[in-house]
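Why run this: before we spend reagent on co-expression, it is cheaper to look at a predicted model of the complex and decide which construct boundaries make sense. The entries below are exactly what would go into the expression plan.
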Amino acid sequence: MTQLRIDQFAPSVAAGDGVTNGLLFTRSLLRDLGYASDIYSFSIPDQLVGDILPALTFHPSQCALMLYHHSMGHDHGPWLLKQDCPKALVYHNITPPEFFPENGGLRRYAELGLTQLREWREEFVHAIAVSPLNESALKEAGYLRSKTLPLLVDTRRLEGTQSQPAFMDHQPAGNRFYLAVGRLAENKRQYLLIEAFYHLMHLQKGTPQAPQRLIIVGGTTSEDYARGLRQHVFNLGLQNQVLLVGKCSDAELRWLYQNSHQYWCTSAHEGFCMPLLEANYASLPVVTQARSNIPDTLGEGGLLLESDDPLDFALACHFLNIESGLREKVIAAGLRNLQRYERENLSQALKEWLAQFEFLQPVKE
Amino acid sequence: MLIPNNPDLDFQELNRRIEAEVQRYRQDNKGRALPAFNPSPAEIYDQPYIWMELIQLDDEPLIRAAYPTLLNRKAEKSEIQQGLMQLRSGFDKFEVLAALRYSPEGIAHNAEVHGLRRARLKNRLRQIPIIGKLILSAYGVTLIEPRNRHVNARLDLLTRQNKLVQDGLHAHKDMMQAQLEVQQRLITDQQKQLQEQHKYLQNQQRSLDIQHEAQRQQAEEFQRLEAELQLARDVQQQSKTVQQELRARLQHLERQPKQIAVAADNSSATTTVVATVEPQQHQSAVPDSFYLAFENRFRGDAATIRERQSYYLPMLEELAPLNNGLPLVDIGCGRGEWLQMLPERLNRIGIDLNSMNVEACHAQGLSAVQQDALIWLANQPENSVAAVTAFHVIEHLSFEQFNVLLDECQRVLAPGGVVIFETPNPENLISAATHFYTDPTHLHPLPPAFTEFLVEFKGFEQVQIHRLNPIPREYALNEDSEVARRCDALFYGPQDYAVTASKSAI
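The model came back. Tokens follow.
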């Protein structure tokens, strides 16, 4: 008997990108479950050539089920709808269009993505949402059958070599640093982190402390906004303590997670928020705010604030520093949270999800 | 506040303490608001930078940022020009920074810098005449090889970067070209579609125009036919009126000898009953045909009359004698318009001098008598009538006749019975001066005050004056002035009034 084939399609892929990591992770789960599985795409960067196949070589007749990964809108709808094999949707988050500049391409494609999601609902036999937030978006778009399965995180990826970033060479020895990872973009609201850091410094006045730094890692998406952040740092007199260090390699990030004191996040919108799990994995206590999908991904794995007020945020961080036993309890809860994303658990959940499709059952002899 | 998400933590206690600290912190920092975050500020270089950020700048931003960083002040225009000249003439940027840092101003500010020692030394040597230059040249010669390599490597890096940028631009250009072509194709298709739709719409427009023209012609035809029909109706109405008048004249002529005989009988019979009644010949001297023609011209349409007379219906609803079967007598009943409006169950009698009117009433099944009303009343027993109504009658009576009418009513009405007399209202000067005299048989206008007084004087109770049928408001002056108000009252006020009264119930 020939092996059943479940392939995946995403209009474009990029090395290191969340959706692409999800595709690779899902492929490894499918292969472990005994299916033949490949990934197809129209836009494949050099690093992934060979690993991901051109969409034009896809054979619908050989494919028992295609998992189509949908995030931003794209122009390959006609090709997708023409593939006459059963298709299931894997829905990744679409950042709400209002977070993008008006009349920009990103905004147009975000809007298109939402339109396509609604218009294509009859095309899929079932749908997977990678988070509860996304599942509620699916329901809103009229999908009657869906399930939340975070097919995103290969916890094995969190392991690996570490390397100290060069900018740390200039920092005083024994400094205590607070870490935030994410692109410099309006929806990430790093200015709240800066203000929280300002308040934290004032809360600690009068108590001798080791030198402290706020390290904000992430490439610039919006130049204006990044300049605004630098200006804000300057206005608050924190130019020696808040470091906007740009992008870091995976090894550098692992080092930062491993050696930071707390992980901070004040993002207004996250489809999943992978850094929370990376912090959990590195036993780094997390402080964040209950926005979009963050409460779902965080579970019990960190301190979750109801308000956006940076002073509340600073006090939560302050208590994490001074309250005996609190830090350890938060770290332990983070490790418990991570178990929800364990490979074995997800593999089992995927198996159960696939079991509902009769056309995937091996033919009994 | 923290959202409870971990059973191992006492969130209630934690939140209580956080809240207390927030309050304390707010108290301590009262009045110290943080500067607002500006998400898109203009680029500013005139501010102190940390050393690592400063040395990443180039050209004008470097010079602008160097002054606040190293000297703690903004650069003057001339200083920016000078710095740019140095950079663009090949000076190393570290030498420019060293010159600033180790100037007296720079030493006084004492900003933290790293790796400026060599640049500072070179600056110093450059200041020693001849020897300094020789040393620098010798130093330069010793460094020719590594510097050459550095320059080559940098050139190579730039070449590669340039190529990358060019490749990127080419790729971008190709992509744009492809997108442009797609867009152009799309636009061409859309243009074609639009042209087709435009053509289709034009055809539609044309057929609509044709239909519209046909409808217009039909409408004109209809108008013409309607006008002709109206003309025919008018002619028919005129001929009907003429026919009625002619028939009346004929009947009058035919009946004349008979009426004289009847009148002779009547006059002898009634003189004993009512001494003041005028002989009936005088009353009927004007032919019935005249009244008929006169009313056709001036009476107004039946619907209007009915609407006006409906005003009185509620007064009769609860009238006990009428409901008990005693008759309502309408003096000058005309063609029975008023009697027809009353419920059939009521006992209704019309009295009219005009034989044609009486016949018309009979034709409608109404009970009617052709007789002088005063004579008719005189022949009725006491307390035998529920109501006496007379619309536009009393202005035809002399004072004496009106007296007799009221006396007779007082006699024949059952206790609680009512009278309703409507007449033109002379308070409206136009009615009093003009319309009143349109009817040559009207004697003189009766002012409401006089009528009210006379009816009261004759022993009636609950005497009321009802002023009715004012000229519609749109014909009035409609100005907010005393003159207009007075004119409106005098010229556009109620055209008629009615006196109503009842006979004592005891």
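The first helix of chain A runs from residue 18 to 32. Chain A has two domains: 6-152, 158-339. Bring this page to Monday's planning discussion.
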